[in-house]
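can u do me a favor
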């Protein structure tokens, strides 16, 4: 159970990227008051939590309905997470693949409320995080304790994300660009190893290769 929590926590922390997200959020809200920034952070995190918990609870059933096997999910999810991790390691940061474009960010800065877009989606509940949520819950294989561990890890990372967003200005000043890059690349290396393991498990389960 503790291992499941640790793996899920590391995965969600990497795909959401609370530290990078806090720095980006500060850049997106230069004209917000402290009260407005905290309100947007709370609303955005809450909306993202609802989206991710929906996929955590019903994602596996949705896969069954669509006829998608767990092996296929592990392979495709592993590929997606690996691409995301590579982007982190080579400088894209946690705001990389599958998140909002520069044009979308500029559009968001001109709006009065960015809590839904781009904060909730795709910055927090992006494709990589949604895919990881479904993959980790499906990988639990109906084990309620493991599923509870994954859900607890998701909630913990979302709570941590909210805290960082609340103090986004201070986080950016404290860590600086270099500090954020070091953390992002380190987490990217860990996530890439997890992604490869997902693909190996998926290939093994698919029956395409004989068991060793």
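np, heres the sequence
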């Amino acid at each position: 159970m503790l291992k499941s929590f640790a793996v899920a926590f590391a995965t969600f922390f990497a795909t959401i990227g609370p530290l990078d997200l806090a720095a980006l959020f500060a850049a997106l809200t230069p004209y917000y008051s402290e009260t407005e920034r905290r309100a947007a952070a709370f609303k955005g995190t809450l909306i993202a939590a609802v989206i991710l918990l929906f996929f955590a609870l019903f994602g596996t059933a949705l896969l069954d309905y669509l006829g998608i096997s767990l092996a296929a999910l592990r392979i495709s999810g592993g590929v997606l997470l690996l691409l995301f991790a590579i982007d982190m390691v080579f400088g894209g940061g946690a705001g990389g693949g599958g998140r909002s474009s520069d044009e979308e960010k500029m559009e968001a800065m001109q709006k009065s409320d960015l809590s839904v877009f781009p904060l909730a989606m795709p910055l927090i509940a992006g494709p990589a995080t949604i895919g990881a949520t479904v993959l980790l819950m499906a990988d639990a294989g109906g084990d309620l304790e493991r599923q509870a561990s994954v859900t607890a890890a998701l909630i913990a990372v979302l709570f941590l994300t909210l805290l960082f967003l609340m103090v986004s200005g201070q986080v950016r000043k404290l860590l600086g660009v270099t500090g954020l890059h070091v953390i992002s690349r380190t987490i990217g290396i860990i996530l890439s190893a997890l992604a490869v393991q997902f693909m190996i498990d998926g290939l093994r389960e698919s029956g395409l290769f004989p068991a060793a």
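Confidence is low (pLDDT under 50) at residues 94-98. hope that helps!!
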